[in-house]
Amino acid sequence: MAALRYFFSLLMVPISFVTAGFSLIAYMAGQTDPNESIFITFIGLAIPVVLIINLLILVYWIIRKKWWVIIPIIAILLNSGYITSIFQMTLSSSELPDGKLPLRIASYNVGKFKSWEHLETQYYISEFLKNNETNIICFQEYRENTKINADTLSHLLNCPHHAITYLPGSTTLGTGIFSKYPILRFGKIPLDSQTNDAMWVDIQTGETTTRIISCHLQTTNFSRKRKLLDDPALQNADIQQVEDVVTDISQELALNFKIRATQAQIVRQVIDTTRIPTIVCGDFNDTPSSYTYQHIKGNLKDSFKTRGNGYAYTFRGIHHLLRIDFILYSKEFKCTDYYSPEKGWSDHNPVISEFYLK
User: Fold this and answer.
1) Where are the alpha helices (DSSP H) in 34-116?
2) Do the Cβ atoms of 154 and 181 come closer than 8 Å?
3) What is the pLDDT along the chain (358 residues), one digit of tens a residue?
């Protein structure tokens, strides 16, 4: 038995190094364009698993009281930025100072205003946002119909100003931004996509002009593809059929990673050429460990990392594992609140943050 324990201890040394190596690769995912290395991108997607394995190795070496414990510690600390992007403890309070104009912004992928139960959700969502005193609202997967167009929704939201950009070939689907403050100008950010889009608006906020950018980047389609693995017919299929399904899913994920990376670069160009205070929000369809998030974020701040509390997810599918909706902001702002409640009106949660100009 002693020989077996000794052998296992020796085996744990290379396992610790290999797992730490994967941690390093996962850390690199945020800085590596998927068009250059899709392997690194996929390891970045698996970062929760990599961190859990490192944690188990850490516990093992602590119990054994060996100096090898430093390896998983370094591996975990290397990805501490990811950990704080999904879990935060904000102990101090922050309130809006007297005389400061509140910018309470909501970013919400409303799923074309159709719930999973296929109910029309415009009335529920507008009532919720009014009760939360939001004064700038960015809708992704926005949809109009003959009963509720942009003017009607403006009235429901109590936001008299709005700007809409539509998907190519559509007069009802796109991205919408609604505001209590005057919209001075707006424009479409061309993503070269039939299903995803982005836009910007310049809003008069007191004596200052603020730019709001709203994005809906390339959809992963993982939830739809995963249903192929759950197909009962696949349970009795041969190995080749299973491999074909897994290959198909992997190839589509890889393609969408690359498309989002290109779209992130387009959005980043708009940010880099903006010379006024800026807030970027939307459904990035990618996690905080991704190149997409890191490239758009750049030197912007993440409102969850500033004012969030507890564990954060914004996508209601895949067992609440993904935070893919964000509100980022430039240095001219102070963030005082972050709020992302569980609501049943979409497959995404709304994200609400409050700011004021310093």
Assistant:
1) 38-45, 47-64, 70-78, 80-86
2) no
3) 666 776 677 889 999 999 999 999 999 999 999 999 999 999 999 999 999 999 999 999 999 888 999 999 999 999 999 999 999 988 777 888 888 899 999 999 999 998 877 789 999 999 999 999 999 999 999 999 888 999 999 999 999 999 999 999 999 999 999 999 999 999 999 998 999 999 999 999 999 999 999 999 998 765 555 555 555 655 566 676 667 667 777 888 899 999 999 999 999 999 999 999 999 999 999 999 999 999 999 999 999 999 999 999 999 988 888 999 999 999 999 999 999 999 999 999 999 999 999 9
H helix count then E strand count, the chain: 12, 14
Report phi then psi at 123, rounded to 5.
-70, -45
Which residue, chain included where needed, has tokens 């003017």? 151
With residue 113 as reference, give the H or E element that holds it: none
| Block residue for tokens 């290397």 | 78
Helices (H), 65-149: 70-78, 80-86, 122-131
Structure tokens at 300: 């912007």
Beta strands 103-109; 136-143: pairing state: parallel
pTM: 0.91
Neighbours of 242 (CB within 10 A): 13
147 Cβ contact partners less than 8 Å away, ≥ 6 residues apart = none
Query: Is 18 exposed, middle or buried, given 0-12, 13-18 or 19+ CB atoms closer than 10 A?
Result: exposed
Q: Which tokens hold the place of 128?
A: 């919720």
Nearest-CA neighbor of 214 among 291, 315, 327? Answer: 327
Pairing of strands 136-143, 173-179: antiparallel
Return the sign of the alpha-carbon dihedral for residues 293, 295, 296, 302: positive
Nearest one of 68, 70, 54 to 13, comparing CA atoms: 68
3 state DSSP class of 221:
coil
**Alpha helices (runs of H) in the chain, residue ranges in sequence order:** 2-28, 38-45, 47-64, 70-78, 80-86, 122-131, 150-157, 222-229, 232-235, 239-272, 291-297, 303-307
| Distance from C-alpha of 343 to C-alpha of 323, rounded to nearest angstrom | 15
